Amino acid sequence: MSKIKIGLFGFGVVGQGIYEVVRKAKNANAEIVKICVRDPEKPRKIQADKRLFTTSVEEILDSPNINLVVEVINDPDAAYDIVKRSMLRGIPVVSGSKTMLARHLPELIELQKTRHVALLYDASSCGSIPVIRNLEEYYDNDLLLEVKGILNGSSNYILSRVFDHAEPYADALAQAQALGFAESDPSFDIEGYDSLFKLVIITVHALGTYVAPERIFTYGISTIHDSDIRYAREKGVKIKLVAQVVKVSDEHFTMFVMPEFVTPDKYIYSVDDEYNGVVIRGECYDRQFMFGKGAGSLPTASSILSDIMARLHDYRYEYKKMNYVQKPGYTTDITLKVYVRYKETDIHNILHFDKIREQYIGEESNYVIGDILLSELMDKRSQLSGRDVFLANIPIFFLNRDR
Ligand SMILES: NC(=O)C1=CN([C@@H]2O[C@H](COP(=O)(O)OP(=O)(O)OC[C@H]3O[C@@H](n4cnc5c(N)ncnc54)[C@H](OP(=O)(O)O)[C@@H]3O)[C@@H](O)[C@H]2O)C=CC1
Ligand SMILES: N[C@@H](CC=O)C(=O)O
What we know:
Layout: E1 4-9, H1 13-24, E2 30-36, E3 53-54, H2 57-61, E4 68-71, H3 76-88, E5 93-95, H4 98-115, E6 119-120, H5 131-137, E7 144-150, H6 153-165, H7 169-178, H8 187-190, H9 193-207, E8 217-218, H10 226-235, E9 238-247, E10 252-262, E11 275-282, E12 286-293, H11 297-312, E13 329-330, E14 335-342, H12 347-350, E15 355-361, E16 366-373, H13 374-379, E17 390-393
Parallel strand pairs: 1-2, 1-4, 2-3, 4-5, 5-6, 8-10, 10-13
Antiparallel strand pairs: 7-9, 7-11, 9-10, 11-12, 14-16, 14-17, 15-16
């Protein structure tokens, strides 16, 4: 590709960051020639030439002058429509919309093949950390065993403020929104869905398999309570929202998103505020750790810029692992050790524990710690949504990993 002429969709937190970094990048040989938004009259932090703005998708897709679409809007359905239409017209796309990608990746991967058109999305998972491209290229072999980490900046920011600075939860959430880390609907962040969508995308590049989001156990931090924080402090651990995909045998892998008690010896223990941290474990190298800003305007834009530059060299994901002859299958038949705090909800009648290890009945709240199948948690997920319930994983080497 010669000069890159960008049609940019979205001029919010990330879009404005992209405008800034593209202007700064002297060697990018790229220029934003059109910006599509919902409301061109909206006041914005960054002043761009008014003539760049449009509300018409067609004005970008029909322009012979535009050879790359960059899509960073906050509406997953509209994003899907824009990305698909661009690709059908043979225009390569860079996207940051993980909700849209996690829902539609199989179709978009197929479109890349049939239409010979690239779709890059490193910014969709972990902001400025180049997780996807590394999994795709460097870890292009059978040795990978696990990708685990903090994939959501907002919930990590909230947990850090609440845990380390004793700030009220609601204030910390409001700050995460004001700083541009949170999604338009912040429940995506705090209920774990943003981490889930990133985990779905990461798993495609880690193990070559797409697992639909609704098949994956997801539990967030919205019901965390002072008693959970006190309990964690007493034990000398921190509570983090952790997403993980783990090979549990040659035949199977598992994945889930859940708050976790993290001990000080773990890399992610020190990952605070909006930072993300990803631990990659493999057969021969044990653990490697990637750390960086996972949200925010310029960090995310830097990742988009990297994808834009990659297009200068015609880079595209090849999804090599999807063609492996032997691939592990997804399982939820795996035993976890969990902490469940509750009050009114009749947890003992809802959850069937294989083994109860500890129980506490208190005036303020109760908790139980026990071994339980992930499939059992998945089946009972809708009954664990009470405001009085909080659940956290206590990491163990999976109890039945060799079954
Ligand atoms: N914020 C972050 O740290 C990160 C965000 N992302 C992802 O990037 C995307 C954008 O996030 P962010 O910048 O924070 O969101 P914002 O809410 O700040 O901005 C969204 C932008 O999308 C525009 N928009 C919405 N719908 C349409 C549409 N149908 N057609 C054209 N433009 C539209 C809005 O237009 P208008 O301004 O006129 O309302 C706005 O400019 C999301 O998918 C998010 O998940 C990914 C990584 C990090
Ligand atoms: N809302 C997301 C933004 C980046 O993906 C987060 O907080 O991590």
